[in-house]
Design a protein that fits this description.
Blueprint: H1 2-42, E1 74-76, E2 81-92, E3 95-110, H2 118-131, E4 135-140, H3 144-150, E5 170-176, E6 182-189, E7 194-200
Antiparallel strand pairs: 1-3, 2-3, 3-7, 4-5, 5-6, 6-7
């Protein structure tokens, strides 16, 4: 009788241990899936549906177009593309969307004898934009399908400072002003160089 009781108790113990192991494995899998989803969310659009009227005005002194002086030890690689009026595509929720206005596009590299730092370039721009009341619209990659959809529509595709390729992580900010209109800034970088695009829409006088 005692042997039977011990056998039954042992069986319950083994079963309980197996269930505990399965529960721990399931919890681990669930945690990994959740972490994966958080990573994906962190690399996607910040604003799903852009309503410009919801963006607060910035009262910062921005100076003259293109409103930027590159950070110390960084320079324009070539002569920037600058036009008084043109189109540039910016990502909204992963969709490359055309905006028209005054345009500036450039490649960015390190000055002579200074290596380019991706982290320095990105952090310098982000810190400056935040200090000027900019709002982040997008931070992520577009899909290959999206690139295939829009790239033939962009007259400056492949030109100076061009971005918007599926393998690039694009950071897109907007500064809304009453006197200078809406200003759109996007940039991307790797270990070798960066790209910077700025477009200023005309002030709506209606």
């Amino acid at each position: 009788m005692k042997k039977t009781v011990l056998l039954i108790a042992g069986s319950f113990l083994v079963l309980s241990c197996n269930q505990k192991v399965k529960q721990d494995v399931n919890e681990q899998k669930q945690s990994e899936q959740t972490n994966g989803e958080e990573t994906i969310e962190g690399d996607s659009a910040t604003i799903t549906n852009l309503n410009i009227a919801d963006i607060p005005y910035s009262n910062a002194d921005l100076g003259a177009f293109p409103f930027f002086t590159l950070p110390k030890n960084l320079k324009e690689l070539n002569k920037p593309l600058q036009k008084d009026f043109d189109v540039c595509y910016f990502p909204i929720n992963g969709v490359m969307t055309p905006f028209e206005g005054k345009l500036y596009k450039t490649f960015v590299t390190g000055v002579e004898k200074e290596s380019f730092s991706q982290r320095y370039f990105e952090k310098s721009l982000e810190d400056y934009l935040k200090s000027r009341g900019a709002v982040k619209i997008f931070d992520g990659h577009i899909t290959t399908d999206e690139y295939d959809r829009y790239h033939n529509e962009d007259p400056n595709k492949g030109g100076e400072g061009d971005m918007g390729y599926a393998d690039e992580r694009i950071k897109f900010y907007m500064i809304r002003t009453e006197d200078k209109g809406n200003i759109y800034i996007q940039f991307t970088a790797n270990n070798a160089s960066g790209k910077l695009n700025i477009l200023q829409e005309e002030v709506d006088k209606s």
